[in-house]
Amino acid sequence: MKRWLSKLSVFFLIVFLIVSGNPGLSKAKAGAKEETIIIFNNDRVPAEVIKLFEGKFKEAKKTILPEVGMIKLEDSKIIDEIKEKFKGSIVYTGKETKLFMPKQELLDEYPMAPFKHKVIANSIASLEAEPSSIPSVNNAYLYQILGWDIKKITEDGESFKKQTGNHKVKIAIIDSGIDFNHPDLKNNIISNGKSFVPNIEDTQDRMGHGTMTAGTIAANGLMLGVGPNLGLIPYKVMDNWVDGAESTWVIEAIIQAANDGVDVINLSLGTYKSLKNPEDRVIVEGYKRAVRYAETKGVAVVASTGNDNYDLSNPLLLAELRGFANDKQVHLPGGGISSLISVTATDVKDQLSSYSNYGNVTIAAPGGDYGEEWESKGILDIFSLNLTTYPTNLPQPYLSQILGLPEGYALTVGTSLAAPKVAGTIGLLIAENKKFKKAPLNINKIEMILRKSAVDLGEPGKDKYFGYGLINANKALDLIK
Q1: Which of 13, 217, 328, 354 is buried most, with the most CB atoms less than 10 Å from its CB?
Q2: Which of 402, 419, 387, 427 is nearest to 140 (CA)?
Q3: pLDDT tens for residues 362-418?
Q4: Nearest by Cα to 13 from 347, 376, 475
Q5: CB neighbours of 184 closer than 8 A, spacing ≥ 6?
Q6: What is the pTM for the complete model shown?
Q7: pLDDT in tens, 234-271
Q8: In this structure, are residues 367 and 413 in contact, taking their beta carbons and an 8 Å threshold?
Q9: Beta strands 98-99 and 231-236: pairing type?
Q10: For residue 11, which of 400, 367, 358, 249 has the smallest C-alpha distance?
Protein backbone atom coordinates (compact mmCIF):
# COMPACT_ATOMS: atom_id res chain seq x y z
CA MET A 1 0.00 0.00 0.00
CA LYS A 2 1.17 3.46 -0.79
CA ARG A 3 1.85 5.22 2.53
CA TRP A 4 -0.01 8.48 3.01
CA LEU A 5 1.74 11.63 4.16
CA SER A 6 1.49 12.42 7.87
CA LYS A 7 0.08 15.85 7.14
CA LEU A 8 -3.12 15.15 5.26
CA SER A 9 -4.75 18.11 3.60
CA VAL A 10 -8.18 16.55 3.60
CA PHE A 11 -11.69 17.15 4.70
CA PHE A 12 -12.35 13.44 4.89
CA LEU A 13 -10.63 10.09 4.74
CA ILE A 14 -13.11 8.39 2.44
CA VAL A 15 -12.47 8.81 -1.27
CA PHE A 16 -15.38 10.08 -3.26
CA LEU A 17 -15.53 8.65 -6.76
CA ILE A 18 -16.21 11.39 -9.28
CA VAL A 19 -18.31 10.14 -12.17
CA SER A 20 -18.12 12.50 -15.13
CA GLY A 21 -21.65 11.69 -16.19
CA ASN A 22 -23.30 12.61 -12.86
CA PRO A 23 -25.94 15.36 -13.04
CA GLY A 24 -24.58 18.75 -12.07
CA LEU A 25 -20.94 17.93 -12.76
CA SER A 26 -19.89 20.61 -15.22
CA LYS A 27 -16.43 21.99 -15.75
CA ALA A 28 -15.90 25.73 -15.94
CA LYS A 29 -16.34 27.00 -19.46
CA ALA A 30 -13.17 27.68 -21.34
CA GLY A 31 -12.46 31.32 -21.86
CA ALA A 32 -14.53 32.54 -18.91
CA LYS A 33 -13.79 36.15 -18.06
CA GLU A 34 -12.07 37.13 -14.83
CA GLU A 35 -14.32 38.68 -12.22
CA THR A 36 -13.30 41.62 -10.05
CA ILE A 37 -14.53 42.38 -6.55
CA ILE A 38 -14.80 45.97 -5.36
CA ILE A 39 -15.34 46.83 -1.70
CA PHE A 40 -16.48 50.29 -0.67
CA ASN A 41 -15.96 52.03 2.66
CA ASN A 42 -18.56 52.32 5.41
CA ASP A 43 -19.93 48.83 4.61
CA ARG A 44 -22.19 50.25 1.91
CA VAL A 45 -22.41 50.49 -1.85
CA PRO A 46 -22.80 54.21 -2.75
CA ALA A 47 -26.25 55.15 -3.98
CA GLU A 48 -24.70 56.59 -7.13
CA VAL A 49 -23.23 53.18 -7.96
CA ILE A 50 -26.61 51.51 -7.44
CA LYS A 51 -28.19 54.04 -9.82
CA LEU A 52 -25.63 53.21 -12.50
CA PHE A 53 -26.56 49.55 -12.31
CA GLU A 54 -30.24 50.40 -12.45
CA GLY A 55 -29.65 52.51 -15.55
CA LYS A 56 -26.51 52.72 -17.67
CA PHE A 57 -25.10 49.34 -16.57
CA LYS A 58 -28.44 47.56 -16.20
CA GLU A 59 -27.42 44.66 -18.46
CA ALA A 60 -24.03 44.15 -16.83
CA LYS A 61 -23.26 40.78 -15.26
CA LYS A 62 -22.94 41.67 -11.61
CA THR A 63 -23.41 40.66 -7.99
CA ILE A 64 -24.29 43.46 -5.58
CA LEU A 65 -24.09 42.86 -1.82
CA PRO A 66 -25.27 46.11 -0.25
CA GLU A 67 -25.19 44.63 3.25
CA VAL A 68 -21.39 44.56 3.18
CA GLY A 69 -20.59 47.28 0.61
CA MET A 70 -19.36 44.84 -2.03
CA ILE A 71 -19.89 44.28 -5.76
CA LYS A 72 -18.54 41.74 -8.24
CA LEU A 73 -18.21 42.58 -11.93
CA GLU A 74 -17.01 40.89 -15.09
CA ASP A 75 -16.85 43.70 -17.67
CA SER A 76 -13.40 45.37 -17.51
CA LYS A 77 -14.67 48.64 -19.04
CA ILE A 78 -17.33 49.02 -16.38
CA ILE A 79 -14.82 48.10 -13.69
CA ASP A 80 -12.43 50.80 -14.88
CA GLU A 81 -15.20 53.38 -14.93
CA ILE A 82 -16.36 52.50 -11.42
CA LYS A 83 -12.79 52.64 -10.13
CA GLU A 84 -12.24 56.07 -11.67
CA LYS A 85 -15.54 57.66 -10.65
CA PHE A 86 -15.61 56.31 -7.11
CA LYS A 87 -11.94 55.91 -6.21
CA GLY A 88 -12.44 57.96 -3.06
CA SER A 89 -15.02 55.47 -1.79
CA ILE A 90 -13.23 52.25 -2.70
CA VAL A 91 -11.30 50.41 0.01
CA TYR A 92 -10.16 47.25 -1.80
CA THR A 93 -10.29 45.73 -5.27
CA GLY A 94 -9.15 42.27 -6.32
CA LYS A 95 -9.86 39.27 -8.49
CA GLU A 96 -12.41 36.66 -7.54
CA THR A 97 -10.80 33.43 -6.33
CA LYS A 98 -12.08 29.96 -5.57
CA LEU A 99 -11.69 27.50 -2.75
CA PHE A 100 -11.59 23.76 -3.28
CA MET A 101 -12.21 20.81 -1.02
CA PRO A 102 -9.24 18.48 -1.65
CA LYS A 103 -9.89 14.82 -2.44
CA GLN A 104 -7.65 11.90 -1.58
CA GLU A 105 -6.39 9.36 -4.06
CA LEU A 106 -8.60 6.35 -4.66
CA LEU A 107 -7.18 3.31 -2.83
CA ASP A 108 -8.28 -0.19 -3.69
CA GLU A 109 -7.35 -1.63 -0.33
CA TYR A 110 -5.65 -0.77 2.91
CA PRO A 111 -5.20 -2.54 6.26
CA MET A 112 -7.49 -1.95 9.19
CA ALA A 113 -7.13 -2.72 12.87
CA PRO A 114 -7.22 -6.53 12.99
CA PHE A 115 -10.71 -8.09 12.91
CA LYS A 116 -12.38 -5.11 14.61
CA HIS A 117 -14.56 -4.36 11.62
CA LYS A 118 -15.80 -7.94 11.45
CA VAL A 119 -17.84 -7.57 14.63
CA ILE A 120 -19.97 -4.67 13.41
CA ALA A 121 -22.78 -6.70 11.82
CA ASN A 122 -23.04 -9.02 14.84
CA SER A 123 -23.01 -6.04 17.18
CA ILE A 124 -25.90 -4.42 15.32
CA ALA A 125 -27.93 -7.61 15.57
CA SER A 126 -27.30 -7.86 19.30
CA LEU A 127 -28.41 -4.29 19.89
CA GLU A 128 -31.80 -4.70 18.23
CA ALA A 129 -33.35 -6.04 21.40
CA GLU A 130 -31.64 -3.69 23.82
CA PRO A 131 -34.02 -1.32 25.64
CA SER A 132 -33.31 2.39 25.90
CA SER A 133 -34.78 5.25 27.90
CA ILE A 134 -34.35 7.52 24.87
CA PRO A 135 -36.78 6.60 22.06
CA SER A 136 -34.50 7.73 19.24
CA VAL A 137 -31.62 5.61 20.54
CA ASN A 138 -33.57 2.34 20.22
CA ASN A 139 -33.01 2.15 16.49
CA ALA A 140 -29.74 4.06 16.29
CA TYR A 141 -27.61 0.93 15.93
CA LEU A 142 -24.75 2.59 14.10
CA TYR A 143 -24.63 5.37 16.66
CA GLN A 144 -24.40 2.86 19.48
CA ILE A 145 -21.44 1.04 17.93
CA LEU A 146 -19.53 3.76 16.06
CA GLY A 147 -20.81 7.04 17.49
CA TRP A 148 -18.10 7.59 20.10
CA ASP A 149 -17.76 11.25 19.10
CA ILE A 150 -21.43 12.10 19.64
CA LYS A 151 -21.50 10.01 22.81
CA LYS A 152 -18.49 11.89 24.15
CA ILE A 153 -19.99 15.37 23.86
CA THR A 154 -23.52 14.32 24.83
CA GLU A 155 -22.13 12.34 27.78
CA ASP A 156 -23.41 9.04 26.41
CA GLY A 157 -26.71 10.53 25.31
CA GLU A 158 -27.53 12.29 28.59
CA SER A 159 -28.09 15.57 26.75
CA PHE A 160 -30.83 13.90 24.65
CA LYS A 161 -32.90 13.60 27.82
CA LYS A 162 -32.76 17.36 28.24
CA GLN A 163 -32.94 18.68 24.70
CA THR A 164 -32.83 17.27 21.16
CA GLY A 165 -33.71 20.49 19.36
CA ASN A 166 -36.71 21.42 17.24
CA HIS A 167 -37.50 22.94 13.87
CA LYS A 168 -37.91 26.41 15.32
CA VAL A 169 -34.12 26.42 15.59
CA LYS A 170 -32.58 26.74 12.12
CA ILE A 171 -29.03 25.68 11.28
CA ALA A 172 -27.61 26.89 7.95
CA ILE A 173 -25.28 24.44 6.21
CA ILE A 174 -23.15 26.48 3.79
CA ASP A 175 -21.64 23.64 1.82
CA SER A 176 -22.38 21.31 -1.11
CA GLY A 177 -26.07 20.81 -0.31
CA ILE A 178 -27.80 17.97 1.56
CA ASP A 179 -29.23 14.64 0.43
CA PHE A 180 -32.98 15.33 0.63
CA ASN A 181 -33.76 11.60 0.47
CA HIS A 182 -31.52 10.44 3.30
CA PRO A 183 -33.65 8.61 5.88
CA ASP A 184 -31.75 10.14 8.80
CA LEU A 185 -31.99 13.72 7.50
CA LYS A 186 -35.06 14.24 5.33
CA ASN A 187 -37.41 14.95 8.23
CA ASN A 188 -35.12 17.68 9.58
CA ILE A 189 -34.57 19.60 6.33
CA ILE A 190 -37.02 22.44 6.82
CA SER A 191 -36.33 24.43 3.66
CA ASN A 192 -34.82 23.96 0.21
CA GLY A 193 -32.47 26.83 1.02
CA LYS A 194 -30.70 28.37 -1.95
CA SER A 195 -28.00 27.58 -4.48
CA PHE A 196 -25.35 30.19 -5.30
CA VAL A 197 -23.74 28.04 -7.98
CA PRO A 198 -24.58 29.44 -11.44
CA ASN A 199 -26.97 27.28 -13.48
CA ILE A 200 -27.62 24.98 -10.51
CA GLU A 201 -31.04 25.68 -9.00
CA ASP A 202 -31.37 22.80 -6.56
CA THR A 203 -29.54 22.19 -3.30
CA GLN A 204 -29.26 18.41 -3.61
CA ASP A 205 -25.83 17.15 -2.57
CA ARG A 206 -23.79 15.61 -5.41
CA MET A 207 -20.47 15.66 -3.56
CA GLY A 208 -21.08 14.26 -0.09
CA HIS A 209 -19.53 16.92 2.10
CA GLY A 210 -22.69 18.85 2.98
CA THR A 211 -24.58 15.68 3.87
CA MET A 212 -21.75 14.63 6.14
CA THR A 213 -21.74 17.90 8.07
CA ALA A 214 -25.55 17.89 8.26
CA GLY A 215 -25.61 14.40 9.76
CA THR A 216 -23.19 15.40 12.48
CA ILE A 217 -25.66 18.10 13.49
CA ALA A 218 -29.08 16.51 13.13
CA ALA A 219 -29.06 12.88 11.97
CA ASN A 220 -31.96 10.94 13.47
CA GLY A 221 -32.05 7.30 12.45
CA LEU A 222 -29.37 4.62 12.48
CA MET A 223 -27.02 7.47 13.33
CA LEU A 224 -27.64 10.36 15.72
CA GLY A 225 -26.32 13.89 15.48
CA VAL A 226 -25.79 16.28 18.38
CA GLY A 227 -29.33 17.62 18.02
CA PRO A 228 -31.46 14.90 16.36
CA ASN A 229 -34.45 17.22 15.90
CA LEU A 230 -32.79 20.48 14.88
CA GLY A 231 -33.87 22.15 11.64
CA LEU A 232 -31.47 22.16 8.69
CA ILE A 233 -31.29 24.53 5.72
CA PRO A 234 -28.81 23.97 2.86
CA TYR A 235 -27.04 26.87 1.15
CA LYS A 236 -25.14 25.42 -1.78
CA VAL A 237 -21.82 27.02 -2.73
CA MET A 238 -20.23 24.02 -4.42
CA ASP A 239 -21.65 21.34 -6.70
CA ASN A 240 -18.64 19.27 -7.76
CA TRP A 241 -14.98 18.66 -7.03
CA VAL A 242 -13.71 20.30 -10.21
CA ASP A 243 -15.12 23.82 -10.21
CA GLY A 244 -14.81 24.74 -6.54
CA ALA A 245 -16.65 27.61 -4.84
CA GLU A 246 -16.14 31.29 -5.58
CA SER A 247 -15.47 33.34 -2.47
CA THR A 248 -18.37 35.63 -3.33
CA TRP A 249 -20.77 32.69 -3.30
CA VAL A 250 -19.77 31.85 0.27
CA ILE A 251 -19.95 35.49 1.36
CA GLU A 252 -23.35 35.88 -0.29
CA ALA A 253 -24.59 32.68 1.34
CA ILE A 254 -23.61 33.97 4.80
CA ILE A 255 -25.57 37.17 4.14
CA GLN A 256 -28.58 35.29 2.74
CA ALA A 257 -28.71 32.90 5.68
CA ALA A 258 -28.60 35.83 8.09
CA ASN A 259 -31.38 37.57 6.19
CA ASP A 260 -33.42 34.34 6.29
CA GLY A 261 -33.33 34.43 10.08
CA VAL A 262 -31.27 31.32 10.78
CA ASP A 263 -29.93 30.84 14.28
CA VAL A 264 -26.56 29.26 13.49
CA ILE A 265 -24.35 29.14 10.39
CA ASN A 266 -21.93 26.24 9.91
CA LEU A 267 -18.93 26.75 7.61
CA SER A 268 -16.98 23.50 7.19
CA LEU A 269 -14.77 24.96 4.49
CA GLY A 270 -11.79 27.26 4.26
CA THR A 271 -9.08 28.95 2.26
CA TYR A 272 -5.71 30.61 2.89
CA LYS A 273 -5.29 34.28 1.99
CA SER A 274 -2.44 36.79 2.15
CA LEU A 275 -2.67 39.88 4.33
CA LYS A 276 -0.07 41.61 2.15
CA ASN A 277 -1.36 40.87 -1.31
CA PRO A 278 -3.94 43.52 -2.36
CA GLU A 279 -5.72 40.90 -4.48
CA ASP A 280 -6.28 38.72 -1.40
CA ARG A 281 -7.21 41.52 0.98
CA VAL A 282 -10.51 42.03 -0.83
CA ILE A 283 -11.52 38.45 0.08
CA VAL A 284 -10.33 38.83 3.67
CA GLU A 285 -12.38 41.98 4.08
CA GLY A 286 -15.42 40.43 2.39
CA TYR A 287 -15.44 37.49 4.80
CA LYS A 288 -14.99 39.74 7.81
CA ARG A 289 -17.87 41.97 6.80
CA ALA A 290 -20.19 39.06 6.06
CA VAL A 291 -19.51 37.42 9.43
CA ARG A 292 -19.93 40.76 11.19
CA TYR A 293 -23.23 41.32 9.39
CA ALA A 294 -24.53 37.88 10.44
CA GLU A 295 -23.51 38.50 14.03
CA THR A 296 -25.32 41.84 14.12
CA LYS A 297 -28.43 39.87 13.15
CA GLY A 298 -27.89 37.62 16.18
CA VAL A 299 -26.55 34.65 14.21
CA ALA A 300 -23.81 32.47 15.70
CA VAL A 301 -21.20 31.67 13.03
CA VAL A 302 -19.14 28.49 13.45
CA ALA A 303 -16.21 27.52 11.19
CA SER A 304 -13.65 24.74 10.88
CA THR A 305 -9.96 25.60 11.06
CA GLY A 306 -8.60 23.27 8.36
CA ASN A 307 -6.66 20.03 8.10
CA ASP A 308 -3.01 20.85 7.42
CA ASN A 309 -1.58 20.72 10.97
CA TYR A 310 -0.60 24.39 10.76
CA ASP A 311 -0.34 26.92 13.57
CA LEU A 312 -2.74 29.69 12.52
CA SER A 313 -1.74 32.10 15.27
CA ASN A 314 1.31 33.50 13.46
CA PRO A 315 0.55 34.79 9.90
CA LEU A 316 4.26 35.15 9.07
CA LEU A 317 5.06 31.57 10.14
CA LEU A 318 1.94 30.23 8.43
CA ALA A 319 2.98 31.81 5.14
CA GLU A 320 6.49 30.38 5.49
CA LEU A 321 5.16 26.87 6.20
CA ARG A 322 3.05 27.13 3.08
CA GLY A 323 6.04 28.12 0.98
CA PHE A 324 5.43 31.89 0.83
CA ALA A 325 8.42 33.46 2.56
CA ASN A 326 8.04 37.08 3.73
CA ASP A 327 4.28 36.94 3.34
CA LYS A 328 1.59 36.99 6.03
CA GLN A 329 -1.32 34.59 5.65
CA VAL A 330 -4.51 33.63 7.44
CA HIS A 331 -7.00 30.78 7.18
CA LEU A 332 -10.53 31.96 6.38
CA PRO A 333 -13.07 31.99 7.76
CA GLY A 334 -12.12 29.74 10.69
CA GLY A 335 -8.99 30.84 12.52
CA GLY A 336 -8.73 34.12 10.63
CA ILE A 337 -11.78 36.00 11.92
CA SER A 338 -11.66 36.54 15.65
CA SER A 339 -15.37 37.19 16.22
CA LEU A 340 -16.66 33.84 14.94
CA ILE A 341 -16.37 30.49 16.72
CA SER A 342 -13.37 28.61 15.31
CA VAL A 343 -13.18 24.86 15.94
CA THR A 344 -10.21 22.50 16.08
CA ALA A 345 -10.43 18.70 15.99
CA THR A 346 -9.63 16.07 18.63
CA ASP A 347 -9.25 12.29 18.52
CA VAL A 348 -10.80 9.50 20.54
CA LYS A 349 -8.31 10.11 23.37
CA ASP A 350 -9.00 13.85 23.52
CA GLN A 351 -5.70 14.75 21.91
CA LEU A 352 -5.31 17.15 19.02
CA SER A 353 -5.99 15.26 15.78
CA SER A 354 -2.80 14.74 13.80
CA TYR A 355 -4.07 16.74 10.81
CA SER A 356 -5.85 19.55 12.63
CA ASN A 357 -4.84 23.19 12.32
CA TYR A 358 -4.65 25.04 15.62
CA GLY A 359 -4.10 28.54 16.95
CA ASN A 360 -6.76 31.27 17.07
CA VAL A 361 -9.34 28.64 18.04
CA THR A 362 -12.36 29.03 20.29
CA ILE A 363 -13.11 25.45 21.18
CA ALA A 364 -12.39 21.83 20.25
CA ALA A 365 -14.70 19.01 19.15
CA PRO A 366 -14.15 15.39 18.07
CA GLY A 367 -13.07 15.15 14.44
CA GLY A 368 -11.51 11.71 14.67
CA ASP A 369 -8.14 10.40 13.52
CA TYR A 370 -6.61 7.29 11.97
CA GLY A 371 -5.60 5.34 15.07
CA GLU A 372 -2.41 4.76 17.04
CA GLU A 373 -0.80 2.43 14.50
CA TRP A 374 -1.49 4.48 11.40
CA GLU A 375 1.81 6.31 11.06
CA SER A 376 4.02 3.50 12.39
CA LYS A 377 2.39 0.49 10.69
CA GLY A 378 -0.14 1.90 8.27
CA ILE A 379 -2.98 0.19 10.14
CA LEU A 380 -6.24 2.10 10.13
CA ASP A 381 -8.48 1.81 13.19
CA ILE A 382 -12.09 2.36 12.15
CA PHE A 383 -13.09 3.01 15.77
CA SER A 384 -10.97 6.16 15.70
CA LEU A 385 -12.89 7.61 12.74
CA ASN A 386 -16.17 9.55 12.81
CA LEU A 387 -19.40 7.98 11.60
CA THR A 388 -21.57 10.29 9.55
CA THR A 389 -24.26 10.36 6.89
CA TYR A 390 -23.41 10.13 3.20
CA PRO A 391 -25.62 10.74 0.12
CA THR A 392 -27.74 7.78 -0.90
CA ASN A 393 -27.57 8.97 -4.51
CA LEU A 394 -23.77 8.50 -4.71
CA PRO A 395 -21.74 5.28 -4.95
CA GLN A 396 -21.18 3.84 -1.51
CA PRO A 397 -17.62 4.55 -0.26
CA TYR A 398 -15.33 1.54 -0.44
CA LEU A 399 -14.69 1.48 3.29
CA SER A 400 -18.44 1.43 3.97
CA GLN A 401 -18.83 -1.47 1.56
CA ILE A 402 -16.17 -3.68 3.10
CA LEU A 403 -17.48 -2.95 6.60
CA GLY A 404 -20.99 -3.92 5.58
CA LEU A 405 -22.46 -0.54 6.52
CA PRO A 406 -25.88 0.29 5.09
CA GLU A 407 -26.00 2.69 2.16
CA GLY A 408 -25.94 6.30 3.26
CA TYR A 409 -23.20 6.15 5.90
CA ALA A 410 -19.45 6.76 5.93
CA LEU A 411 -16.50 6.81 8.30
CA THR A 412 -14.20 9.78 7.99
CA VAL A 413 -12.19 12.46 9.80
CA GLY A 414 -11.66 16.21 9.70
CA THR A 415 -12.27 19.59 11.27
CA SER A 416 -15.22 19.65 8.86
CA LEU A 417 -16.89 17.23 11.27
CA ALA A 418 -15.72 18.99 14.41
CA ALA A 419 -17.28 22.36 13.57
CA PRO A 420 -20.86 21.10 13.06
CA LYS A 421 -20.79 19.44 16.47
CA VAL A 422 -20.31 22.90 17.92
CA ALA A 423 -22.98 24.37 15.64
CA GLY A 424 -25.37 21.65 16.77
CA THR A 425 -24.60 22.25 20.43
CA ILE A 426 -25.34 25.95 20.00
CA GLY A 427 -28.62 24.97 18.35
CA LEU A 428 -29.51 22.94 21.44
CA LEU A 429 -28.72 25.89 23.70
CA ILE A 430 -30.98 28.14 21.66
CA ALA A 431 -33.79 25.56 21.74
CA GLU A 432 -33.44 25.12 25.50
CA ASN A 433 -33.38 28.87 26.01
CA LYS A 434 -36.57 29.28 23.98
CA LYS A 435 -38.23 26.56 26.05
CA PHE A 436 -37.87 28.78 29.08
CA LYS A 437 -39.05 31.81 27.05
CA LYS A 438 -35.95 33.75 27.93
CA ALA A 439 -34.46 36.68 26.04
CA PRO A 440 -32.55 35.46 22.94
CA LEU A 441 -29.01 34.26 23.56
CA ASN A 442 -26.46 36.72 22.20
CA ILE A 443 -23.05 35.72 20.89
CA ASN A 444 -21.28 36.69 24.11
CA LYS A 445 -23.64 34.59 26.22
CA ILE A 446 -23.20 31.60 23.92
CA GLU A 447 -19.41 31.83 24.13
CA MET A 448 -19.60 32.17 27.90
CA ILE A 449 -21.68 28.99 28.17
CA LEU A 450 -19.35 27.08 25.84
CA ARG A 451 -16.35 28.25 27.86
CA LYS A 452 -17.80 27.35 31.25
CA SER A 453 -19.04 23.93 30.14
CA ALA A 454 -16.02 22.85 28.09
CA VAL A 455 -13.74 20.09 29.36
CA ASP A 456 -10.35 21.75 29.76
CA LEU A 457 -7.63 20.07 27.69
CA GLY A 458 -3.95 20.85 27.35
CA GLU A 459 -2.64 23.77 29.39
CA PRO A 460 -5.02 25.13 32.05
CA GLY A 461 -7.43 27.67 30.61
CA LYS A 462 -7.66 28.73 27.01
CA ASP A 463 -4.76 27.58 24.83
CA LYS A 464 -3.93 27.60 21.13
CA TYR A 465 -4.53 23.88 20.60
CA PHE A 466 -7.98 23.43 22.15
CA GLY A 467 -9.26 26.91 22.83
CA TYR A 468 -11.48 26.73 25.91
CA GLY A 469 -11.42 22.93 25.74
CA LEU A 470 -13.59 20.07 24.46
CA ILE A 471 -17.22 20.93 23.84
CA ASN A 472 -19.75 19.30 26.16
CA ALA A 473 -23.39 19.64 25.10
CA ASN A 474 -24.77 18.03 28.24
CA LYS A 475 -22.98 20.36 30.64
CA ALA A 476 -23.72 23.37 28.43
CA LEU A 477 -27.48 22.72 28.64
CA ASP A 478 -27.26 22.82 32.45
CA LEU A 479 -26.21 26.47 32.20
CA ILE A 480 -29.53 27.45 30.61
CA LYS A 481 -31.66 28.22 33.63
Answers
A1: 217
A2: 387
A3: 999 999 999 998 888 888 888 999 999 999 999 988 888 888 888 999 999 999 999
A4: 347
A5: 215, 219, 220, 221, 222, 223, 389, 408
A6: 0.90
A7: 999 999 888 889 999 999 999 999 999 999 999 999 99
A8: yes
A9: unpaired
A10: 367
